[in-house]
Specification:
This protein has 285 residues and is α+β, with helices and mostly antiparallel strands. The protein has eleven helices and eleven strands. Strand 6 and strand 7 form a beta hairpin.
Amino acid sequence: MSLVFYLCTMSIIQKNSHVDIVFTCSEAIDHNVEMIAEEHAIVRVLSGELKVIQSSKTYFFGAGDTHLFPRNRLATLIKSEKDGIPYKAIIVKLTKAVLREFYEHKKTEVIPSFKNDNIIPLSKSPLLESFFASMLPYFDLDYKLPEELSKLKTQEAITILRSIDKDIDNILSDFSEPHKINLVEFMERNYMFNMSLEKFSYLTGRSLTTFKRDFKKAYDTSPQKWLTQKRLELARFQLTEKNRKPIDVYYEVGFENLSHFSYAFKKQFGKTPTELSNQKSNTSR
């Protein structure tokens, strides 16, 4: 049962891979990740900064901030150093198996939370402070964390969440799968997330075949062409109207690397993102 991860921005390593506590790192000062978690996760930032971009809101988390990232939520994560200190965080995964066992004998009325796409910032709490402080010594273990202790710490995390957020049961005890939703509304809200078509289809409550069929009926084009077009249009808006730089835009609009973004942008608009930015700067002087 994998419970805890420790992340920072250094060389890529993995320490104590045979235990439930794993250290992972990245050499990049800014480390970008497209996120769609299949399990709930509690994230505690220890240092640096975490920028979380969702379709309707952008969050900034610094040292000491904690949030719950519910399963099946879409976000772009940008992890960066702050004041010369690298990004570090503790992530505690709350799996469906653990949650099912926890709620098995509890009489909880669940109000499905699928309409709430946002992550949940958690208020400062002595209980949270104590919990994460108790986790830090586990990173020095050179042996497997006892299974019973892993289970107790996870149950402690769930209990703390329930004590500081009266509505949290609606999320943690909801084990339903994504239902069939309006495809157009979902795609217009989430096209900038760089996911596979399989993930898009799953989150709209469809098989891949049905997703492609419904998409063609709605847009009269393929998902791949439509996604590229929408992302490029968003990028052009960010460059020309928001005066942002190409290097700050490409990942947020759904491209994996700057070179591919520049190639696709020039093919679509006749100019590279840099050329368009420079043109905008010259005309505004």
